[in-house]
Design goal:
Elements (H helix, E strand, L loop, with lengths): L23 E5 L2 E4 L4 E4 L2 H4 L8 H11 L12 H13 L4 E5 L2 H15 L7 E5 L8 H6 L3 H4 L9 E4 L4 H7 L4 E6 L2 E2 L5 E2 L2 H14 L2 E5 L14 H4 L5 E4 L10 E5 L1 H4 L15 H14 L4 H22 L4 E7 L2 E6 L3 H10 L2 E2 L1 E2 L4 E4 L7 H17 L1
Parallel strand pairs: 3-15, 5-6, 5-7, 7-10, 10-11
Antiparallel strand pairs: 1-2, 2-3, 4-12, 8-9, 11-12, 13-14, 14-17, 16-17
Pyridoxal-5'-phosphate binds next to helix 4.
């Protein structure tokens, strides 16, 4: 489809994205504004990043205060805010230790390194990941997942990776060998089309890992940090990983990622074996702590879940109204997908024309990622727009 909203020539920016010509210049709560002062309801949240809304006063204050104290110092020093955030995250999760970095893919990279290092003494090194998975753009992450277009021409990839279809424990069991060191997966596959994995499957995966001495790593870069209505998605599944990766929502837009792990895994890393210049620096930690302050308020998720349940219920209703357009509604909490019979690009552009920002996942899934702070009236606003968009199709 020829798309008039997409600019073909992108000046001096590498053409890694099929960019829209809309210039976003401001954000406020659940809305973003373009340079012509058009207002959009932001249910794309920068790909599940700005969950607490734009221009959040509380987070701004924490960052501005930190800007006036110190921006950066090396990890050869103790960074009090880093200790504080790590302590808080370990108290709230299965984890004993945390490593901070600046993006999702760096957290994934560390997970892969941890799995290999942990098992390096006994010759296990293979890692199994799932088809439809997405783990970022480094060579290791692309080896473990990603679309054909993301991988094509970038090989050869890393040795020792296997890939199986999701939700099929027999396939996984037959792929695991004596050399398998770890399993890496997203509990809710996001980029691949919004597919929550089956609870029984994840429990069986955990049991298989225990039986065979395999480490289980959950990539919660997108589905974590409140997206599924709990701090982390594993808490919905009641399946505890050995390693967990988070990013996106943890910084509400400030580049921040983290790899959480149990003590037995952490013990394989000694000084000099891993690092990151910016990881856990004071600016990032001021934001990380402020985000967690908000998200750990006692009633925070209670409110999120009420609004998210309402949204899903209403989306199901809309899907019944347009059975020729919508094939299925999928997802958990505020990580929702509408599988459609037509191009998701076309629907996304039509939504934008009606001042609603959503994202696509693959060719035929509209991925809807509302801010966690969205209220019922924001949901109603989005539903009305979606209804108009489908009516017009
Ligand atoms: C976005 C994403 C990544 C990569 O994160 P970056 O910050 O873009 O490096 C990794 N895993 C999942 C599940 C993601 O959604």
């Amino acid at each position: 489809m020829q798309n008039p909203n997409k600019i073909l020539f992108q000046s001096s920016i590498l053409q890694a994205y099929n960019r829209l010509s809309i210039e976003i210049v401001k954000g406020e709560g659940c809305y973003i504004f373009d340079s012509k002062n058009n207002k959009y309801l932001d249910f794309a949240t920068g790909m599940a990043v700005t969950g607490l809304g734009h221009n959040n006063d509380y987070i701004n204050k924490a960052l501005i205060k930190q800007i006036g104290e110190i921006w950066h110092c090396s990890n050869i020093f103790t960074i009090p805010l880093q200790n504080m955030l790590a302590d808080r995250l370990t108290k709230m999760t299965f984890a004993d230790k945390v490593f901070f970095c600046s993006s999702g893919v760096e957290a994934v990279e560390l997970a892969i390194k941890l799995i290999r290092k942990f098992h390096s003494v006994n010759g296990k090194y293979r890692i199994v990941s799932l088809k439809r998975g997405y783990h970022g753009r480094s060579l290791a992450a692309l080896t473990a997942g990603g679309s054909d277009i993301a991988r094509d021409g970038f090989g050869p990839f890393l040795e020792g990776f296997d890939s199986v279809i999701p939700d099929d424990i027999e396939k996984l069991e037959s792929t695991v060998t004596e050399e398998t060191a770890g399993i890496l997966l997203e509990p809710v596959q996001a980029q691949g089309g919004v597919f929550p994995l089956n609870k029984k499957y994840l429990q069986d995966v955990r049991a298989l890992c225990d039986e065979r001495g395999i480490l289980l790593a959950f990539d919660e870069v997108q589905c974590g940090y409140g997206r599924t209505g709990k701090l982390f998605a594993y808490q919905n599944y009641e399946v505890i990983p050995d390693i967990l990766l988070t990013a996106k929502g943890i910084g509400n837009g400030f580049p921040l990622g983290a790899c959480l792990m149990k003590n037995n895994v952490a013990e394989c890393i000694k000084p000099g074996m891993h690092g990151s210049t910016y990881g856990g620096n004071p600016l990032a930690m001021s934001v990380g702590n402020a985000v967690l302050d908000i998200i750990s308020e006692p009633d925070f998720f209670f409110g999120v879940n009420i609004v998210a349940d309402y949204f899903k219920e209403q989306l199901e209703k809309i899907s019944k109204k347009y059975p020729k357009i919508i094939k299925e509604v999928r997802g958990v909490g505020f990580l929702l997908g509408l599988e459609t019979y037509c191009s998701s690009d076309k629907i996304m552009l039509s939504c934008l024309k009606h001042k609603l920002a959503v994202t696509c996942a693959g060719n035929n899934v509209i991925r809807i990622l509302p801010p966690l702070i969205a209220k019922k009236h924001h949901i109603d606003e989005a539903l009305a727009i979606l209804d108009d968009v489908f009516l017009e199709l």
